[in-house]
Amino acid sequence: MENTEMEEFINAVQERSDIYEVVSRYVPLTLKSGRFWACCPFHEEKTPSFTVTPDKGVFYCFGCHTGGNVFKFISLIEHITYFEAVKLQAERLGINLPSRKKTSDEIKFEQEKDALLKITTLTRDFYHNCLVKTAEGEQGRKYLAARGISEKVIKEFKLGFAPDSWDALTKKIISRGFSESQLVSAGLAVERKNSSGVFDRLRGRVIIPISDISGKVVAFGGRILIDEKDQPKYLNTPETEIFSKGKLLFGLDKSNRAIISANTAIIVEGYMDAISLYSAGIENVVASLGTAFTEDHAKILSRYARRIIFCYDSDEAGQRATVRALPMMKNTGVEVFILIVPDGKDPDEFIQKHGKDAFKKLLENVTPFIDYLFNYKFKQTDCSTLRGKMQVLREMFPLCAEIKNNVIQREYFKKFSTALLLDEDLILEEWKKFSARSPNSKNENQKNLPPLKISLIQQSGGSIIKTLWNEPELLNYVNSFISSKNFITVHQEIINYIEKCYSEGKTPDIFNANSELTPEANWEISRILGKDEPYDSQMSAFQDSIKIMRRLILERRYQQINNAAENFFKVGDIKSWKEQLQALQEIQKEITEL
Questions:
Q1: Of 344, 465, 489, 573, whose CB count within 10 A is highest?
Q2: Does pLDDT of 441 surpass 70?
Q3: pTM of the model
Q4: Which of 83, 77, 514, 22 is nearest to 260 (CA)?
Q5: In whole angstroms, what separates CA 290 from the centre of its chain?
Q6: CA pair distance 566, 581, nearest whole angstrom
Q7: How far apart are CA 277 and CA 288, in angstroms?
Q8: Confidence check: pLDDT of 533 > 70
Q9: Residue 120 to residues 127, 275, 360, 458, 498: CA-CA distances in angstroms?
Q10: What is the mean pLDDT of the chain?
Q11: Which of 530, 547, 540 is nearest to 590 (CA)?
Q12: How large is the C-alpha radius of gyration of the chain?
C-alpha cells in the first residue's frame, strides 16, 4: 500500500467525520456563543470548560488543556492509539482500510506474533481457571484474600495460579496445536539442559497477566507462595517479540481512564502494589514491573497526566530507584512528586496495615521532587565539611535552574541555607557563579540582559500563528519583521511546519500536524485554534502581535548594544563606542515609530 493511498484513506475518513457527532456520542454538548460546551470527559469538573468547534474540526478543554482533532478525541476516550482511532472511525463510517501485498518476511513476522498472542491468551485463561475453579488453586485464593484482593479484582485482572507441576501448562498449550519452541518464544517454557523437551517456567505461584495498553496479554509475573531461599519472590517471563519491560507499564490498560480523570498517575514498583491500590479504590496507578523507570515510561505517562507521583518502597533500594527515575521525567512538562510511605513499607504493606483512607491522607502530603532529592543528597553526603556542603549545592543548582519563579527559587536557597548551616549570601554568590557558567549565559554582554517576557511572547506568537495557519501566504510579511528564531521553541516548530506545507502547496491541517509535530506542538496548536474570534479581531491581534514581538526584539537588542558600548568606553575604544551609540539611536527611532 503506497503512502499516498493511505493519506487518501485518512483524508476520506477525516472529511466524512463530524466532530460534533462523534463527541456527542460520549458527552452531552450545549451550544453557547457559537461553540459547543460540556463538562470535560478527561478530568473532573462542575463548570463546563470543554469545547467543540465543528467548523475547525477540533476540541479543546480550558481546564485540563487537552485538545486535538476527532481522531485524538477517539484515541483518548477509547484508550487506543491514534491510528486505531482512525480505523475505528473508518469502521463506523463504512470506509474500508486500504491494503497492500505484504512481503513474505512481514507475513511470517505477523504470524509469529499472532501465535504468541494466542498462546498468552490461552495461558491467561488456563491459569485463571486453575485459581478460581480447582482445589489446587485454593492456596492461591487464600493468599489473595489475605492481601485484601477481592473476587471482583481477581476477575478484572484475570489473576491466576500456576500448579506446582513441571508441565501442566506445556501439556495444555501443546494440546491446542502449538509447539514447544513457540512456548519458549513466548517466555512460558524453558528448554531442559540435560535432556530434550521443555518445562514450565512458572510453577506454584500466583500469576499476574501483564497486558499492553490495548489489553492484549503479552507476559506474566508470578508471586511465590512459600518463600524459599533458592527461589525469587517475584518472577517475570522474559522479554519477547511482544513484550518489552522498558516500554510497558503494568495496569495502564485498566487505569488510563482514572489517570486522565484525576490528571495524576501514581507509579509503584511492583504489580502487587498496583493491584493492592487498585483494589482499595485508588485506580490511577501503574507499576514499572520492577525494572528501571525509563524515558519511554515517562513519555507514555505524560500523555495521560500532568502530575506524576512516585511511590516506590521506602527502604534504601526504593529510595535509590526513585532518585534514578526522577531525571527521566525531565522535559516532559509534568509536575513530579514523591509519596513517602512511613516505616520503610511498600504501598501494599501500608494499606494492609492502615487501610486505604490512611493511604489517601498520604497522597495529600506528597513531597515535591526537589525537596525529596535535597533531603536524599543531604543524608547521603557528609555535610559536616564545607566540601560536602558545596557538593550538595552543585547537585541542586541545575534543578533550581529549572524553576522559573524567582520567589520559589529564593525559598529553596533559604532552605539550603538553614539545612547546610551556610550564610544565604554565600549561596547566592555560588548561584551567580553557576549561572554565569550555564549555557543560558554565554558571554559577559548577555548575563545582565533582562529575561524575555515569555508569557507575552507566547501570547503574541499564538496570535500570529493563528493567522498564518489559515493564511500562510503572510509568512513573508511576518519574516520581514520577525525571524522564526525569536519565537518560543514550540512556536518555531509550528511555524516551520506551516512553511513546509506552504512550500509544498499544501494547507496546514490538524491531522497531518499530529503525525509530524511533537506532542507539545500539537497541544499548543489545539490551544491556539480552539479559541474562536471574529476575523476583524483576529487580524487586529495579528498586527498588534507583530508590533509587540518586534518591540521586544528591539529592546533586547538595545540592551545588548548598550552593554557593548559601555565596554568599549571602559577600554577607551572611542570609535567603536560612537558606532554603538549610532546603532542605539537607530533602534530607539524604530521603537518610537512602533
A1: 465
A2: no
A3: 0.62
A4: 77
A5: 19
A6: 10
A7: 14
A8: no
A9: 10, 20, 35, 49, 46
A10: 84
A11: 547
A12: 29
Residue 551, C-beta contacts closer than 8 angstroms, at least 6 positions apart: 591, 594
Is the alpha carbon torsion for 527, 532, 535, 539 positive or negative? negative
User: d(Cα 510, Cα 86) in Å, to the nearest integer?
Assistant: 14
Block residue for cell numbers 543531604: 378
Average pLDDT over residues 421-435: 84
Most confident region among 24-38, 156-170, 339-353, 519-533 by mean pLDDT: 156-170
Comparison of pLDDT for 525 and 496, the residue scoring more: 496
Which of 183, 186, 178, 182 shows the shortest CA–CA distance to 166?
Answer: 183
CA distances for 22 relative to 33, 77, 97, 573, angstroms: 21, 11, 19, 70
List the one residue out of 12, 11, 62, 8 whose CA is nearest residue 35.
62
Strands 264-268 and 217-224: unpaired
CA distance 120 to 99: 28
Residue with cell 547537585: 395
pLDDT of residue 4: 67
Higher pLDDT, 179 or 531: 179
Per-residue pLDDT, 277: 92
* Higher per-residue confidence, 75 vs 177: 177
Grid coordinates representing 150 are 477481592
Chain position carrying cell 477517539: 74
What integer is the mean pLDDT of 212-222?
A: 91
- Nearest to residue 186, comparing CAs of 139, 146, 135, 236? 236
Q: Quote the CA–CA distance of 543 and 525 in Å, as a whole number.
A: 19
